[in-house]
Every structure is written in structure tokens, then in C-alpha cells.
Amino acid sequence: QVQLVESGGGSVQAGGSLRLSCAASTSLSMRSCMGWFRQAPGKERQGVAAIDKDGRTTYADSVKGRFTISKDNAKNTLNLQMNSLLPEDTAIYYCATRPIYLPCTLDPLSQSDYRYWGQGTQVTVSS
């Protein structure tokens, strides 16, 4: 069982920045694929960014060039740096990880293969 706890959400004006963190109860160096997802009111949860065991990253088109996913294996923390925030980035943000036998190679932004989820953190961007 893997426990994930997100932090860093909040309210910011458009153009601002936030940094989300996700503390994991297990070593991140063993996690084959970790990701950030978000769910806006009335919408389905969607993949935002993913990172594999070797640090290779994948981003949704809507956040490319603005968001950066990273992980600190020493601290067992997954991060999401969000810059140039837009009102449409408003959502609850979740971190998640796949079982160690499921790599990121196939559709890393699809939530279906992610088994462990955090409780989410709210991000609100005002115009």
C-alpha cells in the first residue's frame, strides 16, 4: 500500500505560480510511473503530467511550457511547478502512482493504470 499526501494548493491570480508537492510513504526510486491529475467542477479527471523512474516526463498539451513535474527521490516527494497559471487551471489536483510493474511507456496520462491516489489539493486561479 502506498500513501500519497498532496500540499501546496491555494488561490492565485492569473499569471501567478504555485508549487504542488506530494509526499509518498514509499521510496520514489522504485515507482515506475507517477503522475499529476486534475478535476475541474463538472468535468472528468484528466492527466496533467507524468514522470517515469528515469525522470522522463510527459505533459498534457494544455500545460506544456508552463508546468514542470519533478521528483526528489531522497525526500520521496513528487512536485509540480505551475507557472503562468490560467483560470482554466482551476481544479482539484491529485498525485498518483502506478504499481511498480506498470511503466509510463504506455499512455502515461491515462488514469486507468494508476492505483494509488492522494486526497487532492485545490488550486483556484482568478482572472
Written overview of the protein:
The chain has 127 residues and is an all-beta fold. Helices cover 0% and strands 46% of the residues. It is built from no helices and 11 strands. The protein has strands at residues 4-7, 10-13, 18-24, 33-39, 46-52, 57-59, 67-72, 77-82, 91-97, 116-117, 121-126. The strands form 2 sheets. Strands 2, 4, 5, 6, 9, 10 and 11 form a 7-stranded mixed beta sheet that branches. A 4-stranded antiparallel beta sheet has the order 1-3-8-7, with no helix packed on it.
Counted by DSSP, the helix tally is 0
The fraction of residues in strands falls at: over 45%
Cα(first) to Cα(last) distance is 40 Å
Structural class: mainly beta
Low-confidence stretches: none
Shape: globular
**How is the biggest beta sheet arranged?**
7 strands, mixed
Topology, number of strands = 11
H/E element order: EEEEEEEEEEE
What share of the residues lie within helices?
A: under 10%
The residue-averaged pLDDT reads 95
Radius of gyration: 13 Å
List the helices and strands and how they pair.
Blueprint: E1 4-7, E2 10-13, E3 18-24, E4 33-39, E5 46-52, E6 57-59, E7 67-72, E8 77-82, E9 91-97, E10 116-117, E11 121-126
Short synopsis of the structure:
By secondary structure, the chain is mainly β. The protein is built from no helices and eleven strands.
What are the main properties of this structure?
four-stranded antiparallel sheet; seven-stranded mixed sheet; mainly beta; 46% strand; 127 residues
